[in-house]
Amino acid sequence: MNQPVYLERAPRPSLARVVACVWSYARADGPDAVQQVVPDGCPELIVHLGPPHAERGADDVWSPQPTPLLAGQLTRPLHLRSRGAGRIVAVRFKPFGARRFAGQPMRPLTDRRVALAALHGAAAADALRTAVEAAADPLEAVQDYVEARLAAAPPLAAEDAVARAVERLLDEAGVATSAQLTAASGLPPRQLQRQFLDIIGVSPRTLRGVVRVRRVTDAVREGAVDLAEAALAAGYFDQAQMGRDFRRFVGAAPAAFLRGDPGLALSLALSETYKPTPHEGR
């Protein structure tokens, strides 16, 4: 059985302000086991080439995802299952990067995967899929689309302020306090909260929890066996507090999650683009 292939690339320089990376995922085999995708703080534009993945709803009913789609912030695990051989081409935005691309507040998109046709119109969505399918380099084609949409989008007055707060949060690996984020943004606390919900889709506290969980996940992946030490480094007072965040965002203990079979979920979990500087050529 062929192993799936995950490839990650830094965005072109003109998109680096709002895009963390572009990536593709290909599998040559048939349907696989259920994959659990966990929050990473980054909304994504997803183009399925081949049968789109199915996702499990709250009623345990499996439904095919739309394609192309914009995935908002996750605050809980998402369960996916491939429906056959195919490829995914995607843009992973920085936490604050998708608001102008979406053309609407991000809060209503949280924990949702929305058809791009509903946001940009059917003609634009069809044109994107056609361009990606026909391109010699699909990762360039999907960036062409994002760049054109951003060029036509009006500026957001608070985007830079929110970006500064997010960058401080990432620089501190999730340990930054609310007061530090407020200071970095230059906005009053309540206004920062409102702008996070509008531009990112979640509160500063929720995004901080996601980043802290990812920091602990990194420690486990890199061979740390003392979870108490990993929790302390991520700003947790004790393992119980860390456990609550893992149950919320991951749905499992760190070691159990990372023992998962190779697949899309594990590839995304091992990505480090939630950190300040994305890694090229993964």
Write a compact overview of the structure shown:
The chain has 282 residues and is α+β, with helices and mostly antiparallel strands.
Series of H and E elements: EEEEEEEEEHEHHHHHHHHHHH
| Main sheet overview | 6 strands, antiparallel
Give the overall average pLDDT. Answer: 87
Instruction: Note the beta-strand portion.
Output: 15-25%
Gap between N and C termini: 22 Å
Assembly category:
single chain
What Rg, in angstroms, do the CA atoms define? 18 Å
Compute the number of helices: 12
Number of strands: 10
How many separate domains? 2
Strand order of the largest sheet: 1-2-9-4-7-10
Helicity level: 40-55%
Described by the principal axes of the CA atoms, the overall outline is globular
Structural class: alpha+beta
- Low-pLDDT stretches are 276-282
